[in-house]
Amino acid sequence: MNAFASPARVLFAAMAALPLLAACTDGEKSEVDAAALASAEKQVAELESAVRQVADDSAILQNELKYTRGLDRHDEKLSRDAFWPDAIITYGNVIPPNDIGTWANSVHSKRAAHQHHVTGLTLDVDGDTAHEEGYILFTADVQRDTSADTNGVPSPGRVLRGSKATLGTGRYVNRYERRDGQWKMAVHEYVHDLSVSFEPVDLCATACMGRWDPADLSYQRPLQALSESERGQRIERGKKPTEQLLP
């Protein structure tokens, strides 16, 4: 019995027994107490099962979001850490887990911008194995205007005039394994469903502040509100998408 369940068992037993015991004679209390304890134990078991399910679901979702954040922030460590070292990753071709961050960055850095959104997760958890399907909505294929590039780390950049962007949907179909108490992907398959082409708006021409390196605002600890001057500086750097900006 874990530390959470022990006090819960006592609490549930006491709450269930008190109303019954109050209405009983001394001779009846032992029998009622046993029935109340049995009922309380059943409730505790159900509660423990529900808590485990919530904990498993949350851990798997957090791992999935770690992976997509790693993709969108070009954070190789985040992307790689979402998989076990022996995982099988397939995007048409099989990609070794150690190479997933490098591979993704090389593809995405050729674009002006991209995002990945995971929704609609369904989970089938069986002990230390879980099968998961997550719907993925993504933007990609926004061609980059390289004439504005400078030396340094690639970051969201200017859109090539006249280019199209892709709004795509697909699914991540994964097998998760829990090892040493931690959930990570053991098999990752991408299944494409739909693509729509449209004309993008070149936000980086006027107000782009995002980065593909640790200088991105989301890495700042503690987060401080930007002054008007600091915000203006970030926007200006966004017009030179590969200018080095250290945290």
Secondary structure class reads alpha+beta
For the secondary structure, the number of strands is: 6
In whole angstroms, the N-to-C terminal distance is: 46 Å
- Mean pLDDT, to the nearest integer, reads 84
Overall shape: it is elongated
- Low-pLDDT segments: 1-11
The helix fraction, in percent, is 25-40%
Summarize the helix and strand pattern as letters: HHHEEHEEEEH
Output the number of helix runs. Answer: 5
Strand order of the largest sheet: 2-1-6-5-4-3
Largest sheet report: 6 strands, mixed
What would you note in describing this structure?
The chain has 247 residues and is an alpha+beta fold. It has five helices and six strands. A six-stranded mixed β-sheet has the order 2-1-6-5-4-3. It is elongated and about 85 Å long. The N terminus is likely disordered.
